[in-house]
């Protein structure tokens, strides 16, 4: 077994576990507001990404098209960070000073 592939798989599963716990805690805290609150679309995106990731990790037969779509969906998680930076004045100042 390739050690690099093993480490990559381990890191992927650690992040998936962390993301699963994060979504579950958020759902338990918000209850119905999870799907009806102001961040409902982001929460739905998180749930769909989580479902697709769990589906892929649990070893289902996947087509290459599905795997590509899953990678694109995972990349959209970065949009959450961008939205957070946009909403936070101090982070926006730090980001603009670093990029300047």
Task: Give me some keywords for this one.
100 residues, mainly alpha, 6 helices, globular
Could you walk me through the main structural features you see in this protein, from its secondary elements to its overall organization?
This protein has helices at 3-30, 33-36, 40-57, 64-75, 77-87, 89-99. The termini are far apart. Helix 1 packs antiparallel against helix 3 (40-57) and helix 3 crosses helix 4 (64-75). The chain has 100 residues and is mainly α. It contains 6 helices and no strands.
User: What sequence of helices (H) and strands (E) makes up the elements?
Assistant: HHHHHH
Specify the number of helices. 6
Q: Would you tell me the overall average pLDDT?
A: 79
Helix/strand/pairing class, anyone?
mainly alpha
The helix fraction, in percent, is over 70%
Number of strands: 0
**Rg:** 16 Å
Q: Alpha-carbon distance between the termini? A: 44 Å
Q: Largest sheet, described in full?
A: none
The global form is: globular
Low-confidence stretches: none
Strand content: under 5%
How do the helices and strands line up, and which of them pair or pack?
Elements: H1 3-30, H2 33-36, H3 40-57, H4 64-75, H5 77-87, H6 89-99
Helix pairs in contact: 1-3, 3-4
What would a concise description of this structure say?
The protein has helices at 3-30, 33-36, 40-57, 64-75, 77-87, 89-99. It has 100 residues and is an all-alpha fold. It starts with a helix and ends with a helix.
């Amino acid at each position: 077994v390739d050690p690099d592939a093993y480490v990559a798989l381990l890191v992927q599963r650690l992040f998936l576990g962390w993301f699963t716990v994060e979504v579950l805690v958020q759902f338990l805290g918000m209850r119905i507001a999870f799907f009806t609150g102001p961040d409902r679309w982001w929460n739905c995106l998180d749930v769909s990404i989580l479902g697709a990731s769990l589906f892929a990790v649990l070893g289902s037969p996947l087509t290459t098209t599905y795997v590509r779509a899953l990678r694109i969906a995972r990349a959209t998680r970065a949009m959450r960070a961008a939205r957070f930076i946009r909403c936070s004045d101090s982070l926006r100042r730090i980001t603009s000073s670093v990029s300047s």
